[in-house]
Amino acid sequence: MADFLFEPHAPVSIPIARGGLYAVRRVYCVGRNYAEHIREMGNDVRDPPFFFAKPADAVVVGGAATPYPPKTDDFQHEVELVVAIGKDGSDIAPEDALDHVYGYACGLDMTRRDLQAIAKKAGRPWEMAKGFDHSAPIGTIEPASAIGHPATGKITLSVNGTERQSGDLGDQIWSVAETIAFLSQFVTLKAGDIIMTGTPAGVGAVVKGDVIEGRIEGVGTVRTVID
């Protein structure tokens, strides 16, 4: 047995709706995948997809609270469809891409928007705006074998019971299959990889005490309280 310098960290996992745990390897996020959100952020609708990453241990599960992070005065919510990869692959053809999906969940891409704006202006990476601690609350994973592969369905987010974001999965510029195929040209996707597929319009700031609830029709929910 290896003689570790310190005790290895526990693996990060997400509950599966019908029992068991999904071990998280990597978290990839698609930027700007809904036309209305692209316009509200002042960008070109037809840009090809691009990706940023969050560390696996940014994942928050079980409805646990999300601490308000340091170094920001503009902490914002983004509700997203989460794709859980269940089969390894690279250079995946779009027509084969859904065979690599284990299941789906509803998640939140929490963002330090002021730090993101500074990074954009300076042409710097987004990691401190996107990949910080507790920045990816995710609900229970529903296996595709049970719910299929949702291409349409209402996606919403409310704060303290007031709806802020509303869209439809059918409004995604790049489908799940296209996103998987495109990303797999750059990296080998493996079982345990998570892809967060972008957010509809209506992103906004939250403060301590706010209750965030995301919902995707036919997929599930995610809930967290800003602590």
TrEMBL record:
Keywords: Hydrolase, Metal-binding. InterPro entries: Fumarylacetoacetase-like_C (IPR011234), Fumarylacetoacetase_C_sf (IPR036663). Gene3D superfamilies: Fumarylacetoacetase-like, C-terminal domain (3.90.850.10). Transmembrane segments: none annotated. Residues 27-226 form the Fumarylacetoacetase-like C-terminal domain. It comes from the Bacteria. Pfam families: FAA_hydrolase. One of its GO terms (molecular function) is metal ion binding. PANTHER family: ACYLPYRUVASE (PTHR11820), FLUTATHIONE S-TRANSFERASE (PTHR11820:SF90). This is Fumarylacetoacetate hydrolase. It comes from Devosia riboflavina.
